[in-house]
Model the fold of this input.
Amino acid sequence: LLSQVKPPCSFTPQETEYLTNRIQNGGTEVVEAKAGAGSATLSMAYAAVKFADVCLRGLRGDAGIVECAFIASQVTELPFFASKVRLGRTGAEEIYQLGPLNEYERIGLEKAKKELALSIQKGISFIRK
Done:
């Protein structure tokens, strides 16, 4: 959410749309830049090791571990959602709300929730098989 970056920044509507598109499609851009000869696996590997590290630090009892995670929550009406969580010895000890969204982000969230609901249902169906 660009409206919540720290330190705070302001963007024109055009900049917001441009940056959002680049962020959302970064993996595709890497594949296209490699002309189909590879994928964005290093980005995924880095994200995985970073998340594993913060989980282990939380389980060890380190204080102030906040990271984004896709977990069961009540942040939205969906049963699962990605948001900031405070990690600790028992896992996700606090789930943070999204905070104030601008109009562009509210519209994007509503669109995303429709697709996310289908993906969640697909995942739940897969687990139940």
The domain at 2-128 is CATH 3.90.110.10 (L-2-Hydroxyisocaproate Dehydrogenase; Chain A, domain 2). The CA atoms of residues 3 and 101 lie 7 Å apart.
